[in-house]
Amino acid sequence: MRDSPYVLSRNFIGKIRMKNGQYTEALEDFRLSGDKVNYGKTFESLRYQFLQKYFYVIVISAAVLFILLALLIKKSRKFISNLQAKLWKQ
């Protein structure tokens, strides 16, 4: 069983770290204090920061994968139709 001063101090330290932008450390403090509400808010802030940092990388990667998949489907359809034409000639 956790004692109350430990939980309160961890929770307070977590709030300070969250305000300072130290989201990873704040997550650990909120996890140790058992504060699910502030843990969720901190995780949301961390996720938002991650998406801001890597948004263009994610969008460009998704576009490249979509184009490659479309080209692969087009090539495979062409290959299958050529293969069917060869088989019907025999």
Can you put this structure into words, describing what you see?
With 90 residues, the chain is mostly helical. It has one domain (4-89). Helix content is 90%, strand content 0%.
- CA-CA gap between termini: 80 Å
Regions with pLDDT < 50 over 5+ consecutive residues?
none
Domain module count: 1
Subunit organisation of the chains: single chain
Tell me the helix content: over 70%
- Give a count of the beta strands, DSSP E runs of length 2 or more: 0
Strand content: under 5%
- Shape descriptor reads rod-shaped
Structural class: mainly alpha
Return the string of H and E elements. Answer: HHH
In this structure, how is the largest beta sheet organized? none
Radius of gyration equals 26 Å
Average pLDDT value? 92
**Structure annotation, total helices:** 3
